[in-house]
Hints:
The chain is mainly α. It has helices at about 20-40, 50-70, and strands at about 1-5, 5. A two-stranded antiparallel ribbon has the order 1-2. β1 (about 1-5) and β2 form a beta hairpin. The longest helix has 21 residues, at about 20-40. The model has no long low-confidence stretch (mean pLDDT about 90).
Amino acid sequence: TLAAGKLTAVTALAFPSADTKSAAVSDQAIPLLRDETIVAQSAEVATISGATYTSKAWQESLAAALAQAGL
């Protein structure tokens, strides 16, 4: 969500949940990635240890969404 050109909220529309390990990683990583994104105000957030694929996918997806929004 954007307000006055700033990120105020970020929602993961989809994330891996097909197996218990993927779901557990997502459940732990997504809140951290969301918080870091709001602080950073960009897709340039740290990769979370143990959630490398989730972190990279988050960064790529967010970068595309921000580009589409013209940021």
